[in-house]
């Protein structure tokens, strides 16, 4: 069996809203519903694990039952950090398989991206979607700044995808401030990270401007 851990524990403070962005209605549907729907269309028997804030547990259960009444989701309260939330989610993984870890605030994944991640993770143990940097970059330092080669950098996305045994071993480490995403945890445990082509529309909704962009994407789709 394969699994998708949906990280929905964020507070969404930069959205300037009193509700986490993953539960807000985007063109009539909660943001979290978009990516869940894609996972279930990709593999109807995938086990969805929803990592949520404690105060929204009842609301999210009712919400997902409305949109996916025949599916058996697993729910678990998240931690204070991404590392802790993923570790919580892993408690719901019962046996070997591939585990997708996805941000609930990224509603625009598709089956092609999921298939790339799955195939790479099956062959190499992990798959991290990324896209090229389009803008010019500068590195700041005490004396000012300097231009850097943007071709040396990638923008990382989710779902970051792993074989379960690799995740389980890696998340036994002590948490570190260097763990900015799941791939950094795996890398610290000694594994080589494998990149797959990401998706330009796979934005993470973080700010009010992102919300406007997301509304445009939904309209075009």
Strand-helix topology:
Elements: E1 3-7, E2 25-26, E3 29-30, H1 31-42, E4 47-52, H2 57-67, E5 74-77, H3 82-90, E6 98-103, H4 111-124, E7 126-132, E8 137-141, E9 144-148, E10 154-156, E11 160-163, H5 164-170, H6 182-188, E12 195-197, H7 208-220
Parallel strand pairs: 1-4, 1-6, 4-5, 7-12
Antiparallel strand pairs: 2-3, 6-11, 7-10, 7-11, 8-9
Describe this structure in words.
The chain is of the alpha/beta class. Helices cover 33% and strands 24% of the residues. Strands 1, 4, 5, 6, 7, 10, 11 and 12 form an 8-stranded mixed beta sheet that branches. Strands 2-3 form a two-stranded antiparallel sheet. Strands 8-9 form a two-stranded antiparallel sheet. Strand 8 (137-141) and strand 9 (144-148) form a beta hairpin. The mean pLDDT is 94.
Global geometry: globular
Helix segment count? 7
Poorly predicted spans: none
| Topology as a string of helices (H) and strands (E) | EEEHEHEHEHEEEEEHHEH
The residue-averaged pLDDT reads 94
Helix content: 25-40%
Rg for CA atoms: 17 Å
Terminal CA distance reads 30 Å
Q: How big a fraction of the residues is strand?
A: 15-25%
How many strands? 12
Largest sheet: 8 strands, mixed
| Estimated structural class | alpha/beta
């Amino acid at each position: 069996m394969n699994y998708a851990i949906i990280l929905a524990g964020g507070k969404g403070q930069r959205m300037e809203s009193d509700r986490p962005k993953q539960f807000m209605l985007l063109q009539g549907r909660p943001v979290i519903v978009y990516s869940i729907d894609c996972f279930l269309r990709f593999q109807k028997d995938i086990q969805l694990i929803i990592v949520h804030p404690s105060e929204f547990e009842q609301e999210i259960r009712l919400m997902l039952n409305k949109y996916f009444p025949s599916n058996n989701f697993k729910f678990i309260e998240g931690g204070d950090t991404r590392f802790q939330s993923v570790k919580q989610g892993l408690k719901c993984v019962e046996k070997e398989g591939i585990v997708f870890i996805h941000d609930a605030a990224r509603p625009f994944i598709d089956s092609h991206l999921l298939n790339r991640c799955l195939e790479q993770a099956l062959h190499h143990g992990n798959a991290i979607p990324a896209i090229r940097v389009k803008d010019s970059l500068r590195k700041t330092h005490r004396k000012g700044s300097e231009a850097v080669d943007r071709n040396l950098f990638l923008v990382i996305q989710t779902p970051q995808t792993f074989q379960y045994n690799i995740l389980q071993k890696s998340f036994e480490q002590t948490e570190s401030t260097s763990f900015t995403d799941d791939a950094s945890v795996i890398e610290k445990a000694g594994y080589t990270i494998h990149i797959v082509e990401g998706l330009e529309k796979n934005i993470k909704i973080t700010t009010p401007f992102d919300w406007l962009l997301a509304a445009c994407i939904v309209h075009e789709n």
